[in-house]
Amino acid sequence: MIAMSEVDLNRVDLNLLVALDVLLKERHITNSANRLNLSQPAMSRTLARLRETFDDPLLIRVPNGYERTVYADILAETLKETLGQIHQTFASPTFDPATATGVFTISTFDYADTVVIPKFVAALRREAPGMRIDTIRRSVLSLDEVLNGTSDISIGMAPKTAPKHVAHDKLYEDRYVCVMDKKHPLASVPLTLEAYLEYPHSIIHGGVTPGSIIDGILNKMGRQRIVARRSPNFLASIFSMRDTDLLHAVPQRLVEPLLKTAGLVMHELPFPMEPFQVEQIWHTRHCHNQSHKWFREQLTMVSQSMPALGNL
């Protein structure tokens, strides 16, 4: 067995490995030069550099051409694996959703978990049946979970000024409407500002919510409403409206399919309020990750497939 001494990689041009692989396969300088689009003199100089690097002749001239040395035979066996690993290192990673397994975690409130996640899960069951979706409750503006890696994506409102390591993209648009019990005194009459302020309200609290936005609008008008209930949960608040005199501002996409089940009616708010954008938010380290990009594209597609918001 030949003892193989260590080579100082700092003085090795790793591009020579490709030339060495061709030379050891062809065992012919001119043929190797043709395969590598080099001149015959350039190929000869390359062989000389390889001989100096490995301190071995590598190819020995015989009457019919060249033969490999014993050391060259050993190198030929290891080169195939070595070059294969190098190619794999530089190859773009691929993602096959049909065979993918693992967990994709989304941080959000129960609002997006109800409006868009079911459609997203349905798409994944068709395209990536081996994947599991975990949803976790997000903190204010969804940034903590994304930045610390607890979640792959957060869904909600993005901050006006996002940190430099956070990317976000619009999924869909929604707007706030006012709901109340179908037996409420205001259920069948136009909702005026005076009537809106006469009755108590249920609000969502925590972070940027319709409650804080609406109070800001009312404060600018010099008005204030009565708050009788506060909750961090959109769905629980909606279903707790039945048989009460409360009013509640909620996203239209969330509440509209639930009106009959929850026993509620829906009205326009009695003051202008701009629609809001629901976005997907992620850490920039995932921007070029093929699997993460695929999931973002699926979320975008299912969001764009949702119907446009209808007028009341």
Write down the overall mean pLDDT. Answer: 88
Which radius of gyration do the C-alpha atoms yield? Answer: 33 Å
CATH superfamily of the largest domain: Periplasmic binding protein-like II
Shape: rod-shaped
Q: Kindly give the count of domains.
A: 3
* Separation, N- and C-terminal Cα atoms: 86 Å
Assign the structural class, choosing from mainly alpha, mainly beta, alpha/beta, alpha+beta, or little secondary structure: alpha/beta
CATH level-3 fold name of the largest domain? D-Maltodextrin-Binding Protein, domain 2
Secondary-structure element order, N to C: HHHEEHEHHEHEEEHEHEHEHHEEH
Q: Quick one: biggest sheet? A: 5 strands, mixed
Regions with little confidence, pLDDT below 50 for 5+ residues: 1-5
**CATH class descriptor of the largest domain:** Alpha Beta
Structure, described:
It is a single chain. The chain has helices at residues 16-26, 29-35, 40-54, 70-90, 110-115, 117-127, 143-147, 193-198, 210-220, 234-239, 252-255, 259-262, 290-304; strands at 59-62, 65-68, 102-108, 131-137, 153-156, 166-174, 176-181, 200-204, 226-231, 247-251, 264-267, 276-283. The relative contact order is 0.13. α1 (16-26) crosses α4 and α2 (29-35) packs across α3. The protein has three domains: 9-90, Winged helix-like DNA-binding domain superfamily/Winged helix DNA-binding domain (Arc Repressor Mutant, subunit A); 102-174 and 276-304, 3-Layer(aba) Sandwich (D-Maltodextrin-Binding Protein, domain 2), CATH 3.40.190; 176-267, Periplasmic binding protein-like II (D-Maltodextrin-Binding Protein, domain 2). The longest helix is centred in the N-terminal third of the chain and has 21 residues, at 70-90. The chain has a five-stranded mixed beta sheet with strand order 4-3-5-12-6. It has 13 helices and twelve strands. The protein has 312 residues and is of the alpha/beta class.
